[in-house]
Amino acid sequence: MKTVSNPILKGFVLPGLPQPLLTPDANPGYRKLRNAFEQVREEIEALKPDVILVYSTMWPSILGHQVQARPELTWTHVDEEFHDLGSIPYTFKFDAALAHQLVQEGTSRGLLMKATDYNGFPIDTGSIVALKLINSSLKIPAVILSSNIYSDRAETVVLGKATLHALIAQKKTAVAVIVSSLSNRLHSEFINPKEDKIHSLKDQEWNTKILEFLEKGRLEDVAQLSRQIHKEARVKKVGNFKPFWWLSSLMGPHNRYTGEVKAYEAIYGVGAAVVGLTPAATAARDLEFDEDSPENYAGERNVLASVGGASEGMSSQTFAAGDEHE
Hints:
- This protein is α/β, with parallel strands linked by helices.
- It has a single domain, classed as LigB-like (Protocatechuate 4,5-dioxygenase, Chain B).
- 32% of the residues lie in helices and 24% in strands.
- The protein has helices spanning 19-22, 28-47, 96-108, 125-134, 153-170, 201-215, 219-224, 226-233, 243-251, and strands at 8-14, 51-61, 65-68, 72-78, 87-93, 113-116, 142-148, 174-179, 185-186, 257-267, 270-279, 319-320.
- A hairpin with an 8-residue loop joins strand 4 and strand 5.
- The longest helix is centred in the first third of the chain and has 20 residues, at 28-47.
- It starts with 7 loop residues before the first strand and ends in a 6-residue tail after the last strand.
- The model is unreliable at 303-319 (pLDDT under 50).
């Protein structure tokens, strides 16, 4: 274990659909994503963190937040949407001590937290894809956090702070990973993988905006735009687009990062990107933000929540990617 002022060595945005893992040569874009995953794996191995933290939008939780706490899990998974691609056997190692520390930190801040520890727990596709591709050697233990369906900004920000303080308490370094698509609309009819493309021009435009910000290291700007991103480019099955709230709260709510877009492609219509964010000394843009940064959770005010929120239904003509089972 290492004592450092900033325990988060680097952050990554990774897609969670199984094509880059199971059928990387079905489309040149899938191969580019697979190669980008390999670059991430090499970077993580060079950084030698104590743990890989994964916030997966493909692991939905209803009552509060769950944290994977079993030291080791071995199972075989089949994706519920792309089961025709085949089975995914896996073995993963987890940092149980850090997981329980995180539950303790979150609970003390007013969050409803639970450690998940039983054999055969169904790990989600996104976490499996990410960990098999960036940690295939199992040298680094992981901790996976669920994405609560009903949580909004304040709760997610507090979860990020609880995660950070759990690391500090155990004097551990980490890389932080969010498993999520950008736009999340799947093609609603069968397509030839070789003809895959982003679902719509509007989705493409918003994906490009997000990636422009991330490439410039403007993480907090993306976090501040999360509600608008959710409104414009995502099927509204949950209250808001929350993974960047967690990542910004954990790494630091500012724009002092160096960004690198390693790959951006379509997976069955969904915007899939592999992005790296490294803490930097200066910011591309330093702005003042007007939203609170709560230390403890005492309920959502919902002053700025989008109309409809979590109750908004899915269009009968549009289907959401697996990462939005939140």
